[in-house]
TrEMBL record:
<dbReference type="GO" id="GO:0005524">
    <property type="term" value="F:ATP binding"/>
</dbReference>
<comment type="similarity">
    <text>Belongs to the pyruvate kinase family.</text>
</comment>
<dbReference type="InterPro" id="IPR008279">
    <property type="entry name" value="PEP-util_enz_mobile_dom"/>
</dbReference>
<keyword id="KW-0670">Pyruvate</keyword>
<dbReference type="InterPro" id="IPR036918">
    <property type="entry name" value="Pyrv_Knase_C_sf"/>
</dbReference>
<keyword id="KW-0808">Transferase</keyword>
<dbReference type="InterPro" id="IPR018209">
    <property type="entry name" value="Pyrv_Knase_AS"/>
</dbReference>
<dbReference type="GO" id="GO:0000287">
    <property type="term" value="F:magnesium ion binding"/>
</dbReference>
<dbReference type="InterPro" id="IPR040442">
    <property type="entry name" value="Pyrv_kinase-like_dom_sf"/>
</dbReference>
<dbReference type="InterPro" id="IPR001697">
    <property type="entry name" value="Pyr_Knase"/>
</dbReference>
<dbReference type="GO" id="GO:0030955">
    <property type="term" value="F:potassium ion binding"/>
</dbReference>
<dbReference type="InterPro" id="IPR015793">
    <property type="entry name" value="Pyrv_Knase_brl"/>
</dbReference>
<keyword id="KW-0418">Kinase</keyword>
<feature type="domain" description="Pyruvate kinase barrel">
    <location>
        <begin position="1"/>
        <end position="296"/>
    </location>
</feature>
<dbReference type="InterPro" id="IPR011037">
    <property type="entry name" value="Pyrv_Knase-like_insert_dom_sf"/>
</dbReference>
<dbReference type="InterPro" id="IPR015813">
    <property type="entry name" value="Pyrv/PenolPyrv_kinase-like_dom"/>
</dbReference>
<keyword id="KW-0547">Nucleotide-binding</keyword>
Length: 557
């Protein structure tokens, strides 16, 4: 699990506060980076309370929806939205309880809407009401949403999932609230749940930090056959914008009751990954189901297996051709392409705002993206981005320090090892957000010595360390790298077996240098404490052109 979603349609602040505390404690104890997403109730329409429940609505019977506050029965039910009679027309369809109850509008007055029951069934109090194809004049956020967001700011949540977003101004209303409370670090993820939201998708993405494909209410508001098409379109547009997209609702719904998913559900999760989702989300499966842990494990297994089957080269070529080239896009493309061609172990991005990691992620490189950042808050924010593994680093003031810290932090995670090829990308000047303009191909190795090198051939081999010519002759094996304080003619039998030569003393006219050149083997002279640092049998890599010795196998590219 990378992100914990808290549904503010239910529960009070005391409950949610305890859950947040539990999540953070578990995150700390396990060492796992887990972000928190606050899901608002949103400006929804619901039925009022009933005298007795459930009541049975019979197909063909009449029923009146009223804006008056009453205790409802089988003839008359109240609704929470006062302007509903103004927004609907005769012939409009009204759906209740996720579309289980279907009504057709017959007549309207100032407070009442008389309907015929098209699809009947049992109904309880406070069920959701949808009006497909009708633009409803609800506010962007309600007073409850605003209070919930203020609570989220106090709790330092990472994301706001804004329910029932219909247009860009709905998002900007939330952003204004965050700015007023100095909480612009909290990211806004609109939930697209109605036809108006689908129609205004481009403007919503432009002002948002990501998107949630909320298929539950969306499947009620638009025809069921349109939902998969809308899902693919939303994911595609978010991918091209480099913004994370979550596919949600009923992904493993049967696991609320059963320990295993249906075949259709497994395919649904896999296809969401194939479509390009950054994240897939569970709802009732973990909130109220019998098998919450198994549901998470199942979803993770499906996602991981699907990612193994992705055609990474095809994805890269398709996206590279589809995007306009800016400096950032060019660097991100180059990084993804280099990682693909060199089969890099990882891509290491040094990022202040998360921008660099997101821009690389949009090309879906097969190599994991290790995002090295300075704050835990940024680590949590990046937990939603595809393929990104955030890690902490210290302060760096130069690019050399930045690269050194980035590699060191990556090594600590175990994701990369000495000798691995990695692609490093960052922005210069160091500390500037959104300025991805630098890329380096690097092979990780620990430098253990430096001197003056002669030769062009890089050699990796095992050390033969000798304090005297006699010791060298006794210990030397064919192809070993001879390490000595200095050499003279007595060392010749040992040198002739060596693949490379390292000495503590001497310059380019020394015996070691002259002999190595004549034999055509690389040499590095003037390496301080070489005998102390390099012991018998130790594997080292010699790079004469730069005069550097690394432990293990390592290349400078």
């Amino acid at each position: 699990m990378n992100v914990a979603r808290l549904n503010f349609s239910h529960g009070d602040y005391e409950e949610h506060g305890k859950r947040i505390q539990t999540i953070r404690q578990a995150s700390q104890e396990t060492g796992k980076n887990v972000a928190i997403l606050l899901d608002t109730k949103g400006p929804e329409i619901r039925t009022g309370n009933l005298k007795e429940e459930p009541i049975e609505l019979v197909q063909g019977n009449k029923i009146t929806l009223t804006t008056e506050e009453i205790l409802g029965d089988a003839n008359r039910i109240s609704v929470t939205y006062q302007n509903l009679p103004k927004d609907v027309q005769v012939g409009s369809t009204i759906l209740i309880d996720d579309g289980l109850i279907g009504l057709r509008v017959d007549s309207i007055n100032e407070t009442d809407i008389e309907c015929t029951i098209v699809n009947g069934g049992a109904i309880k109090s406070k069920k959701g009401v949808n009006v497909p194809g009708v633009k409803i004049a609800l506010p962007g956020i309600t007073e409850k949403d605003a209070n919930d967001i203020r609570f989220g700011i106090e709790q330092d949540v990472d994301f706001i999932a804004a329910s029932f977003v219909r247009k860009a101004s709905d998002v900007l209303e939330i952003r204004e609230l965050l700015e007023h409370h100095n909480a612009t670090h909290i990211q806004i993820i609109p939930k697209i749940e109605n036809q108006e939201g689908v129609e205004n998708l481009d403007e919503i993405i432009e002002v948002s930090d990501g998107l949630m494909v909320a298929r539950g209410d969306l499947g009620v508001e638009i025809p069921a056959e349109e939902v998969p098409i809308a899902q693919k379109e939303m994911i595609k547009k978010c991918n091209l914008a480099g913004k994370p997209v979550i596919t949600a609702t009923m992904m493993l719904d049967s696991m609320q009751r059963n320990p295993r998913p249906t075949r259709a559900e497994s395919s649904d999760v896999a296809n969401a990954v194939f479509d390009g989702s950054d994240a897939v989300m569970l709802s009732g499966e973990t909130a109220a189901g019998k098998y919450p842990v198994e549901a998470v494990q199942t979803m993770a297994r499906i996602a991981e297996r699907t990612e193994q089957a992705l055609q990474y080269r095809e994805i890269f070529l398709h996206r590279a051709n589809a995007l306009q080239v800016t400096v950032t896009e060019a660097i991100s493309q180059a990084v993804a392409n280099a990682a693909l061609e060199l089969e890099a172990k990882a891509i290491i991005t040094a990022t202040e705002s998360g921008f660099t990691a997101r821009m690389v992620s949009k090309y879906r490189p097969e190599s994991p993206i290790i995002a090295v950042t300075k704050t835990e808050r940024m680590m949590r924010r990046l937990s939603l981005v595809w393929g990104v593994h955030p890690v902490l680093r210290g302060h760096a003031s130069t690019t050399d320090e930045l690269f050194e810290q980035a590699v060191e932090s990556s090594l600590k995670t175990g994701a990369v090892s000495l000798g691995d090829i990695v692609i490093i990308t960052a922005g210069v000047p160091v500390g500037s957000s959104g300025s991805t303009n630098l890329m380096k191909v690097h092979q990780i190795g620990e430098m253990i010595g430096k001197g003056t090198g002669i030769g062009s051939q890089n050699i990796t081999g095992n050390v033969c360390s000798a304090s005297s010519a006699e010791e060298a002759l006794n210990k030397m094996t064919d192809g070993a790298i001879l390490v000595a304080r200095s050499t003279d003619k007595d060392y010749m039998p040992a040198i002739e077996k060596a693949s490379a030569l390292i000495t503590e003393l001497g310059g380019i006219t020394s015996h070691a240098a002259v002999v190595a050149v004549s034999l055509g083997i690389p040499v590095i002279v003037g390496v301080e404490r070489a005998l102390d640092l390099m012991k018998d049998g130790m594997e080292v890599s010699v790079y004469p052109e730069v005069g550097v010795i690394y432990s293990g196998r390592a290349r400078v590219l």
